[in-house]
Design goal:
Blueprint: E1 4-5, E2 18-25, H1 32-39, H2 44-51, H3 56-77, E3 87-89, E4 95-97, E5 104-111, E6 114-121, E7 125-131, H4 138-145, H5 148-151, H6 160-181, E8 192-195, E9 203-206, E10 217-224, E11 228-235, E12 243-249
Parallel strand pairs: 1-12, 2-12
Antiparallel strand pairs: 2-6, 3-4, 5-6, 7-11, 8-9, 10-11
Helix pairs in contact: 2-3
Amino acid sequence: MFCDFTPSYPVADIADEEVHLWLIDTNDALPSKVLDDGLSLLSDGEKNRMKQFRKAARQHQFLIARVALRCILNALLNHPGARDLRFTTNPYGKPALANNSENIQFNLSHSGSIILIAVTLGRECGVDIEHIDNTRNIYDLARFYFHPAEYGTLRGPHNVPADILQFYKLWTLKEAFIKGEGKGMAIPGNGFYFCNTEAASPRLRVADPALAAHPHWLFHHQVYNDTFSTALAIASPPDTVLNISRRRLLFNPLT
């Protein structure tokens, strides 16, 4: 379970062997002043992106995600102000800090009301969260998107509940890896697969080594609140032992 965590800034430093996972629920009641003050932290580009979402709920989600990310990174970097942080993207769109002498890496995902942010020191990372939809046609999706070795782990309509959990475990693990590598759809979903998914850290097999910039990844999967499948990917040597620190942002990140 993700622990309840009411942050007081500055956040404690992050060590080389640590991964900080922050969970934010946009359903948490936030005073309008917090949202107004949060909007002032966003860059003009972020404000324009937010305006492109037609639904108010999606704008609300984007605002909270960007405010939380800025405040967390600002605290770790001991930066003068969250508003002054600058971001850049790689050719595939993966975001990063523009000025990052501390080599802080991060990744963000959202599903429904939940936002998940991963932060590491000097290690590429990817994170994914998906709401578990029990009505979804997982078999057609898996046949199209998964590697045959992964599709073969689904046992068919007579085993739907277990197959749904296996599908979302694989789905989020694959998305976390793709986001960690930062190559987007340049990495086809059937170009790699996971095995030993029942273990604490599933193993990755890549059909073409040229698809992956990092030879070794560590993975972690967890179901949150019986409703969301979450996965984390960290570029690390196979013998690395990481400390995953889960933190619930109950929040007023501006205080």
